[in-house]
Amino acid sequence: MGEMQAGQGGGFKPNSSRRVGVFMVVFGAVAAVIGFVLLLLPSGPASFGWFAYAPLSNTTFFPPGGLLSVRTQIGIVLFIVGLVLLAFGAGWMLGQRQAGRQRRLPDPSSPSS
């Protein structure tokens, strides 16, 4: 049996490496679009408001969960995660393209016949 040399064998095959990048870009785009749609949807009627009721005029009301609805919070998280996946997938694909280009270029230090 032959010995495996550095840089040969193992690791990802070129086709599966491309699938990883496409997978990240597609799912990142889907997550970003869903998050953006959740941000644009109205979150329903406000659970608080201003009332001219004298005994409560000096207190401040904060609804549970902060000032954003749960749907808006999920939309923000999905949008950010989608953008991160998109950026990582695009970087992965560009890196694979650059690595493929490096493999195809002839070695400038070797003498040409």
What labels describe this entry?
113 residues; mainly alpha; 55% helix; rod-shaped
Q: What would you say this structure looks like, in words?
A:
This protein is an all-alpha fold and 113 residues long. It has two helices and no strands. It has helices spanning 14-40, 70-104. Helix 1 (14-40) runs antiparallel to helix 2. The longest helix is centred in the C-terminal third of the chain and has 35 residues, at 70-104. It is rod-shaped and about 90 Å long. The model has no long low-confidence stretch (mean pLDDT 76).
Radius of gyration: 26 Å
Distance between the termini: 32 Å
- Number of helices, counting only DSSP H or I runs of 4 residues or more: 2
Order of helices and strands: HH
Share in helix: 40-55%
Taken as a percent bin, the fraction of beta residues is under 5%
Overall mean confidence score, pLDDT: 76
